[in-house]
Amino acid sequence: MGRQEIKMIVGKIVSIQFNQFRVRIFSNVKGGGLNIKGEIYYFGNIGSYLKTSNALGEDIVCEVIAIFDSDRQDNGQDFNLNSNRELLLKPIGTYKDDNFTLGISVYPSLYSDVSLLTNEDLKNILIPKEEYETESQGVYLGVSKNQINHPIYIQEDKFFGMHSAVLGNSGSGKSNTIAHLLQEIYKKEQPALGSKVIIFDVNGEYRQAFSKLDHSDVKVKLFKPNIEGNENGAEPFYMPHFLLSLDEWCAFLMATDATQKPFWDKVLQEAYRFYKILSSNEAEEQKKFISYLRYKLYSFANNILVQTESDTTKITTLQSVILKIRDIATNAIKDNKKIESLKEDAESLKEDANKLLEKCDLSYGKKNNEISTTLEEIKKRINFDDVNKISEYKYKDGELFDYTFLEIAAEMILVDEETRGIKTTRGYVGTMLTRLDYFINNPECSFMREINHKNIKEVDQYLDYLWGKNQLIIIDTSELGKDTLETLTSVISRLIFEYRKKQKGRKRQKNPVHLVLDEAHRYIKKDQKYLLKDNVFERIAREGRKFSLYLLISSQRPSELSETVLSQCANFIIHRIQNENDMRHINAVLPYFSEDFVSKIKQSVPGEALVFGDFVPMPMHIKIQKADPEPNSSNCKISQEWYKK
User: Fold this and answer.
1) Which residues pair with 114 in a beta bridge?
2) Fewer CB within 10 Å, N side or C side of the chain?
């Protein structure tokens, strides 16, 4: 199919300024619409397109920004301009030989013809020649508000091959836009079976939108944390705690870098040692646990003896430590039913502890030698080879361990610190230990405490569990609190990012992954109060494209978003925004945002959006197609609820 030239001149330029042209409409052009070969063109409305040309033969595409009745007094007979109707045009870009570029270098001359921008012109601008000739339309987005009802298609590579943002107030149509775009790629005759998309569904809206995909090969998996069994089509979602990195643990526990982060690193190492010993199926390996505790008892007591404090303080501290070690041994065995074989060894350790406790009374100075003698007897029963082997166990991020050892490990590290004379640690880590208790006991964190699900022991197994054979994963996080939400989104995104970074050569271009970040301002904050200092989304925004990992960000508060993430987005779909701070933030971050966009964004009705970026040659005002089915994001009908029978 060839490209046909249809031209209809409607007026001439009568004034030229740097950023606008004044156009006098011919007297024989009546009304605001023309019929050309059966197609109706509306050119007299705000936002419609017209074109003129310059001396280089380039078409200059312009947008109508004002309409008025001129009070100029001249006959205008020579140019058929005896009309008082004038338009003010804003030049957008130039078009020649199937290439469109924003901005103009050579301006038109005075009295240059102004003609309609036809549907064929717009199609040529929007779809590159090579794609046009292969009849590749791309993904249907909606209809143009500028060129009324003209269908707008976008190319997958230009939208999904970049980081993109969908911004707008609540109720402006963001969820509908994302749902529609994803529905389009899965409803094609040849659907996107090679896609991998994860939606972090903060409001629980997207389940409904993907409930009726017809293609049998398109698989959608719906997860929800903290449910028992399937619930309305959702499966329980698990994210085992051992997948958290040290930084993610510190963020979740609200630990500070200076004191608490090193402390928690020691806790993880100690918990890992306990797990490695006690999870072994060999009785001899399990017995190392008691030997390790006996060594700790001996070591802590020796540390106390060399302190310069008073005898009373020493004896009080020693009694406390002995009781704690004894309790740790008892609790560890009680909490781990499969290590019944350690009961006899544990009793032996208790006897040692009790003997040492007997020597601790207020006549401490007289019994100093007795305590030392008792410690020497305890030392003889320590297998130092076992202790050394245990000390060599080093925990690395992503290695399996049991969270039930965390409290015991934390207490062990605290005792270690105190016996070395560091008395302030317990006060410094109080808040963190409270958060640890929250993790261990609060139902909201139960999805992180499950470690036996599908026998997952490493990251690759977990990613296989997460994806399966599905193209679309929806994680309904609507019932999670802020801190838990930040942890979940950060951990999952980091695991995928690290997996993508491991791909070498051509594999980096295979199996692209898209993360859809619903209500992104809740976990991609720009302020320093963000819990996770090394924001993984900023790293993905900067580096993700190299590894075929892309972000699709949805937010109603762009002013609260990380500027790094927003500035790395190449495509924008902006629905109605009323807040001045949000508008200023968009204006500051985006290099090609102009002041006249503000009124369009503020005046958009739900479902309409201003789109600009790499996926469209020029900024356009579009009515987005309604998703079918729609996401569950509609507002409550107050009158219906109040006055129903």
Assistant:
1) 11
2) C
Query: Cα angle vertex 586, ends 585, 592, to 5°?
Result: 135
CA geometry: angle at 170 spanning 167 and 172, to 5°? 65
pTM above 0.70, yes or no: yes
**What tens digit of pLDDT does each residue of 209-220 get?**
998 887 889 999
Average pLDDT along the chain: 85
Model pLDDT, residue 333: 64
**Residue 219 burial class via C-beta count within 10 angstroms: exposed 0-12, middle 13-18, buried 19 and up:** middle
Using CA atoms, how far residue 598 sits from 143, 144, 586, 609, in Å, is 21, 18, 10, 12
How far apart (Å, rounded) are the C-alpha atoms in residues 54 and 105? 10
- Residues 549, 553, 557, CA angle at the centre, nearest 5°? 155
Q: Please state the φ and ψ torsions of residue 41, each to the nearest 5 degrees.
A: -115, 125
Residue 448: C-alpha distances to residues 99, 225, 226, 442, 460 (Å): 53, 9, 9, 11, 17
175/627 Cα distance (integer angstroms):
9
> How far from the centroid of its chain's Cα atoms is residue 25's Cα?
51
The mean pLDDT value for 456-485 works out to: 92
Inter-residue contact 88 to 116 (CB < 8 Å): no
Q: Which two tokens stand for residue 40?
A: 């109706």
Tell me which of 81-90, 249-258, 564-573 is least confident.
Answer: 81-90
Q: Any bridge partners for residue 197, and if so which?
A: 472, 514
> Which pair of tokens denotes residue 616?
């469209």
Which letter does DSSP use for residue 340 in this model?
G
**97: closest CA among 128, 119, 134?**
128
For 153, list phi and psi in degrees, rounded to 5: -115, 145
Long-range contacts of 107-110 (CB under 8 A, 24+ apart): 107/16, 107/54, 107/60, 108/13, 108/16, 108/21, 108/52, 108/53, 108/54, 108/60, 109/13, 109/54, 109/55, 110/13, 110/14, 110/15, 110/16
